[in-house]
Design a protein that fits this description.
The structure holds 2 protein chains of 2 kinds. Chain A is an all-beta fold. Chain A has strands at residues 5-7, 10-13, 19-24, 31-37, 44-50, 65-69, 75-79, 88-95, 105-106, 110-114. Chain A has a single domain (5-97), classed as Immunoglobulins (Immunoglobulin-like). Chain A is built from no helices and 10 strands. In chain A, the strands form 2 sheets. In chain A, strands 2, 4, 5, 8, 9 and 10 form a 6-stranded mixed beta sheet that branches. A 4-stranded antiparallel beta sheet of chain A has the order 1-3-7-6, with no helix packed on it. By secondary structure, chain B is an all-beta fold. Chain B is built from no helices and 11 strands. Chain B has one domain (5-111): Sandwich (Immunoglobulin-like), CATH 2.60.40.10. Classes of the chains: A mainly beta, B mainly beta. At the A-B interface, strand 5 and strand 9 of A face strand 5 and strand 9 of B.
Chain lengths: 115, 112
């Protein structure tokens, strides 16, 4: 079946502008995760959605970052008033959220460049 | 805060050699322990995963060895090939949530 889909694949924006990044998880996956990966670095957890539960926002770096998940499927990560330090690859992953069977599958990411 | 310690940070191996990457975790969650492979410009792709009640899993040239008592697991790449050159991440499940904690990554370069 189709994997995790992210769009756009690349986004160039000017400092101070708002951006929206989209993630379409694997069908049937109830858990969705956003990560940030700076050049040559590891995965920084941002936010996690699980079913109808309140999202775990503990990784969001500032109040300029927000995310929502509509209808338990597609998610949008919004960065307001972008800064140059926001430049990174934003990765989305989804999983079945079953105890003992919860491997995450990643999308190809959105490469954000803030000029 | 729970951590996963991954080593080495980088690794250079001759073609045909064995690549070994290690991870140490802290929690006791029961779920798969996966390894991901990431090529430049791509998202991490699941390479191989092991359940914590199994000590070893092999898929082709890739083997995970799992030591539950020591809370360590490792990835072995046999007969390493230049096409294996990538960054590898391990991950550990967490207790009480469906989140995973990722290692910091190992950049592998296999020389032709």
């Amino acid at each position: 079946g189709a994997g995790v889909s992210q769009s756009p694949s690349n986004k160039v924006t000017e400092k101070g502008k708002d951006v929206e990044l989209r993630c379409d998880p694997i069908s049937g996956h109830t858990a969705l995760y956003w990560y940030r990966q700076s050049l040559g670095q590891g995965l920084e957890f941002l936010i996690y959605f699980q079913g109808n539960s309140a999202p775990d926002k503990s990784g969001l770096p500032s109040d300029r970052f927000s995310a929502e998940r509509t209808g338990g499927s597609v998610s949008t990560l919004t960065i307001q008033r972008t800064q140059q330090e926001d430049s990174a690859v934003y990765l989305c992953a989804s999983s079945l959220a079953l105890a003992g069977g919860n491997i995450q599958y990643f999308g190809a990411g959105t490469r954000l460049s803030v000029l | 805060q729970q951590q996963v310690k991954q080593s080495p940070q980088s690794l250079i191996v001759q073609k045909g050699g064995i690549s070994i990457i290690n991870c140490a975790y802290e929690n006791t969650a029961f779920d798969y322990f996966p390894w991901y492979q990431q090529f430049p410009g791509k998202g991490p792709a699941l390479l191989i995963a092991i359940r914590p009640d199994v000590s070893e899993k092999k898929e082709g040239r890739f083997t995970i060895s799992f030591n539950k008592s020591a809370k360590q697991f490792s990835l072995h790449i046999m007969d390493s090939q230049p096409g294996d050159s990538a960054t590898y991440f391990c991950a550990s499940p967490t207790s009480g949530t469906y989140k995973y904690i990722f290692g910091t990554g190992t950049r592998l370069k296999v020389l032709a």
